[in-house]
Amino acid sequence: MLYCPGDEREMMEKAVDSGADVVIFDLEDAVAPAARDEARRAVRETIEALENPAQSISVRINPLDRDGSKDVDAVIRDAETLPDSVVLPKVESSEMVAALTDHLADVGAESVDVIPLIETAAGLVAAEEIAGAPGVVAVAYGDQDYTADVGATVTDEKTESLYARQRVVAAAGAAGVDALDTVYTDIDDADGLREQTETVIAFGFDGKLAIHPAQVDIINEAFTPDPEEIEWAEKVIEGQEQASETETAVFTVGGQMIDPPLVDRARTILDRVDAAENH
């Protein structure tokens, strides 16, 4: 998911060709308060000018108690074309999600999904109820705000974020929605981005936020299974189908005993292959 400043029309137009699965037109951190009215107009006009974009289009609004409602009214109310989702920052309860979904319904945008950002200690403690709230399709973790909120010392190894990341993944998994990892702020550090992305994939994250188009290919490549993984997954699914025909609960692939959790892992690998092929 690629963030793009909502007051930069040319950047927004180019972002849809970046290869990202989702482009987020940002009205929060990326826009100065004095430029917010113009940014709202720019975002609305850009969305309405897009012709069947391959990417999903999202808008990050401000918190509802800080102009978020104005963002929704300006960008979504009576719009000819709606975004696919709204990213809501600083979410700390399911009631905050409900307030947004109610507002979306009021402006005739019930079809717009919600992606809450968990960026505070209170949000992390409420992660399960937030992920399970109606209208939510994914939850995203915001590391910079979270570590500042709890007063953590930020390290290169990111051990201070380990618990927060794993709790977000668990909450998303329990709710059956996607978990999205935080941005990597050093745009020039491709190796660091690749390493961090591989780490959060191992944690169970389904996607990652990006702040520059140059990061998109690195993230996509990391999420794309390698040939050995694909071959293993295909053999597992083939073995599972044969086992079902013979009513066998457990079978082996290459000497490895395969049970239902490994079948689920194989399906996840093949789903990621399909997603990569559809870029």
UniProtKB/TrEMBL annotation:
Keyword list, A-Z: Lyase, Magnesium, Metal-binding
Entry annotated with the keyword Kinase: no
Pfam families for this protein: HpcH_HpaI
Gene Ontology MF: a single term: lyase activity
Cofactor: Mg(2+)
Record-annotated HpcH/HpaI aldolase/citrate lyase domain positions: 1-213
BP terms from Gene Ontology: oxaloacetate metabolic process
UniProt keyword Magnesium, yes or no: yes
Domain of life: Archaea
Signal peptide positions (record): none
PANTHER family: HPCH_HPAI ALDOLASE_CITRATE LYASE DOMAIN-CONTAINING PROTEIN, LYASE BETA SUBUNIT, PUTATIVE (AFU_ORTHOLOGUE AFUA_4G13030)-RELATED
Protein name (Swiss-Prot/TrEMBL): Citrate lyase subunit beta
